[in-house]
Amino acid sequence: MTRILSAIKPTGQLTLGNYIGALRNFKNYQEGGDVLYFIADLHALTLPIEPETLRLNTRDIASFYLASGLDPKKSTLFLQSMVPAHAELNAILQNYLYMGELSRMTQFKDYSSRLKGKAIGLGIFAYPALMAADILLYDTDLVPVGEDQAQHVELTRDLVHQFNARYGEILHLPKTVVNKTGARIMSLSDPSKKMSKSDPKGDIFLKDDMDVIRKKIMSAKTDSGTEIIYNREEKPGIANLLTIYASLKNISIDDAVTHFKGYRYGEFKKEVADAVIDELEPLQKRYKEILESGEYLAVLQEGAERAKKMAEPLLAKVKEAVGLLNA
Ligand code: TYM
Known about the structure:
Elements: E1 3-8, H1 16-26, E2 34-39, H2 41-44, H3 51-67, E3 75-79, H4 85-93, H5 99-103, H6 106-114, H7 122-125, H8 127-136, E4 142-144, H9 147-167, E5 175-177, H10 210-218, H11 236-249, H12 253-259, H13 265-293, H14 296-322
Parallel strand pairs: 1-2, 2-3, 4-5
Bound molecules: ligand 1.
């Protein structure tokens, strides 16, 4: 059976970008796949974060996982930190990634430039080693992610080739799955930038009130033209809103453009806002119920137990291959 794995890190509030680029698609793999989704809480420590914020964000993501339709009977849901094999495999694999390639990672360059002269922790630099461990631990076939994480999965693939060339066919080669539409949702206030939890200007948060969402979309930056066409370079604001609409309605960008032919920008934005609200209002309601019930805790613990067992064989194989004695 095809094994699918993905994760979200609890560094901030979930955005519409996380939802469209990742979370919304997760449930589709549950049928007929062997799926693992976790919360990358160890990765969240790679940037400065208050302990209470990390705890709150983690609970939120767990609740949003369940609210989005992930079913613990069909998906293994857990916290990265609850399965020590992630950290163990990381400790081994980090020796097969190199300073040069790590320093070329876009995420590292972005984050370190945002720290503006402050000391840069080792974790943010070595981030892709832990991510490679996450993926390789479970012989993953497919890794569904937004565009910004694809580079890390590609690096994982390079690592597999290199490691296997030295030790034999030990690691399984994963494939990146990036959606054709919605893999890069842009900021509403600056559509040249990605919508990002760690750079919240122009974000829609999954927890925003509906009237705030409407206001944000109605004041989204567009251009001085009047035509609703898809052109990412010349009309990035309109292109972004078209992408959001098409993704949520499960239609192609072309169909969205046809639908909005002859609309004014104001009317267009109103329909995009309706589409976002139609999706997020019920999601938010389910999220609140789940968060209040606390049911996510048992789910994560049970998922972690399952994941621990699944991780054992590969970790043992890697230890054996590199010359560590297995107990
Ligand atoms: P994270 O938490 O930054 O983002 C979670 C998912 O959301 C996608 N995403 C977006 N998609 C479209 N438009 C956007 N503006 C946007 N912003 C974020 C991301 O691409 C991602 O799919 N390193 C990962 C977490 C991780 C992971 C893994 C993922 C840790 N280990 C193993 C896959 C496999 C991360 O920080 O994602």
